[in-house]
Design a protein that fits this description.
Oligomer: single chain
Strand content: 5-15%
Radius of gyration: 17 Å
CATH topology: Rossmann fold
Number of domains: 1
Low-confidence stretches: none
Strand order of the largest sheet: 1-2-3-7-6
Number of strands: 7
CATH superfamily: Thiamin diphosphate (ThDP)-binding fold, Pyr/PP domains
Mean pLDDT: 96
Largest sheet: 5 strands, parallel
CATH architecture: 3-Layer(aba) Sandwich
Helix content: 25-40%
Shape: globular
Structural class: alpha/beta
């Protein structure tokens, strides 16, 4: 998509995101397992990264100079796998094997089974620490490659993230971008009811990061913020993307029960119509 102008690129990102939502819905409904609410809050972010921002080649998934994407909220595999498939890492037919016995599409991503998966995730609080190590590696190699990490907001209640945030600032990792999927909900309740994160932007600034707050479903804001040049301040960049859990399907939006809810056949038909 390198020859597309900005408007064409954003239109492509939007189109891919719709395809990803429909694909994730089919995967979760087909297996009767998954985390569709968190898939839908993250898909616009992932689509923007793969179809507007990152430098990668699915035919050479281990190319040393590729940009890295780490999906720290590893339970949202419907979003990750649909994105990797749309980006060309594996054929669409594989999506129907989601979480089936012997499938490469596990409930949590495994880099040993699937190209494009940079590190195994699932236990929360692991993705950002690994990403800091990846970014330090690029820094030591004087490489221009960038590392992008997506965490959930509830996931930031894990202390390992803040240890990693402190080290990223100390090492001046301007090649590291953290995107927080700030949908305000986690399993069973709101993040602020469970263990308040606010003011999240001030917390990251206090840890020495540049911080941007955007609408995580606004494609132009996502594209402009994620594709911006590296920080001239030599700081890592945290993007707080305000999102809606279940975005795109009316009865799922902002409902904590869709953290790992599975639609009935009637709900599935309605959701497909809304995602037409």
């Amino acid at each position: 998509m390198s020859n597309l102008d900005k408007d064409e690129r954003i239109a492509a990102i939007k189109s891919k995101a719709l395809w990803m939502r429909r694909s994730a819905l089919k995967m979760v409904y087909g297996k009767q397992l998954g985390h569709i609410g968190g898939d839908f809050s993250a898909i616009d972010i992932i689509s923007t990264l793969y179809f507007g921002v990152m430098d990668y080649d699915p035919k050479e998934p281990l190319s040393p100079e590729r940009d890295r994407f780490v999906m720290s909220k590893g339970h949202a595999t419907g979003a990750l796998y649909s994105g990797l498939c749309a980006a060309g890492y594996f054929p669409e037919e594989m999506l129907s094997t989601y979480m089936q016995p012997n499938s490469n599409l596990n409930g949590h991503p495994n880099r040993n089974y699937l190209p494009g998966v940079e590190t195994n995730t699932g236990p929360l609080g692991h993705g950002l620490p690994v990403s800091v190590g990846i970014a330090i590696s690029a820094q030591l190699a004087s490489s221009n490659r960038r590392t992008f990490t997506l965490t959930g907001d509830g996931e930031l209640q894990e202390g390992s993230n803040w240890e990693a945030a402190m080290l990223a600032s100390h090492r001046k990792l301007s090649n590291l971008t953290l995107v927080v999927d700030r949908n305000g909900l986690q399993q069973g309740a709101g993040t602020e009811e469970t263990n308040s994160l606010a003011p999240l932007d001030d917390k990251f600034r206090a840890f020495g990061w540049d911080v941007s707050t955007i609408d995580g479903h606004h494609y132009t804001q996502l594209y402009d913020t994620l594709s911006a040049p590296r920080s001239t301040s030599n700081k890592p960049h945290c993007i707080i993307a305000n999102t809606i859990k279940g975005k795109g399907v009316s009865f799922m939006e902002n409902e904590a029960r869709w953290h790992h809810g599975v639609p009935t056949s009637e709900q599935y038909s309605i959701a497909l119509q809304e995602l037409a």
